[in-house]
Amino acid sequence: MALSFGAIGQTPGEAIKPLFARGPSVTARLVLLALVSLALMVVDHRHNVLQPARYALSAVVYPVQMAADLPSQLGQFISREFRGRRELLAEIERLRDQNMFNQARLLKLDALEEENIRLRELLDSAYEVGEAVLIAELMRVDLDPTTHLVRIDKGATDGLYAGQPVLDAGGIVGQVNEVGPFTATVRLISDPSHAIPVQVNRNGVRAVAVGTGDLSSLTLKNLPNNTDIRHGDLLVTSGLGGRFPPGYPVGRVARVNTDPGEAFARVDVRPAAALNRLQEVLLVRRDGDVQRFAGGDAAEPEVEAPGS
Fold this sequence. Notes:
Elements: H1 26-47, H2 51-81, H3 85-122, E1 132-144, E2 147-152, E3 165-167, E4 172-179, E5 184-188, E6 195-200, E7 206-211, E8 218-224, E9 234-237, E10 249-257, E11 264-271, E12 280-285, H4 289-294
Antiparallel strand pairs: 1-2, 1-12, 2-5, 3-4, 3-12, 4-5, 6-7, 6-9, 7-8, 8-11, 9-10, 10-11
């Protein structure tokens, strides 16, 4: 008698189905991966546990960023090389005149600075002039309506730290948001999540300037209707909070709208910095900033002092 290995009632050639499934379904795996991803995002948001991984990845993608920026740099190099001689001479003449004008202004500012030092010494008040600065160039601009971030070509190896103030020739640009080994991201003052303590240079009234998502506009929050503030008033950093040095221009009041039915006035401010034309920025570092914002673990960088 021939032995039959098929199941009773099974036709010849029909495949034998397994009695039990050999693993979770694709849907179950997808749900499990989604839950794990969500848990990792929550843990990283609360405890920043993935910061070392992001730091390492920043070093890994740095060559890719440089490669992506290479065509732009190559195009600029070719454009400079083929620029006409007449245009170059005109540019040199304009820069020479601008340099002479800047030197004249620096001489006046140096004299005023020395006079302030002498007056403060007479009042027996300790005073340190100037801050160390470092020049950085922009590599990438991300002007999403909800986040105004730019990437610069300096990083932790150059002594940068989170919270470091960033300026241009006009005034405050923003602050360093995240630092990698060779690059860093800067959050502009126009970012909706950015706020900076300011004061009116005319009378010392203090307020908080908040980004609006518009590169050409800031707003002052919770300012009473009877506040002495006018169109054209210069707003400077107040120094409160210790992050931004006091006295740096932030912007000028562009519009003051007071509604008797509202408790607070609406004050629009035009930023002093050219946020829509940034090419190079200045990173400011005062003595003790690295220890305060980086816990004292950052290395002392070599920085170029203003006027050197």
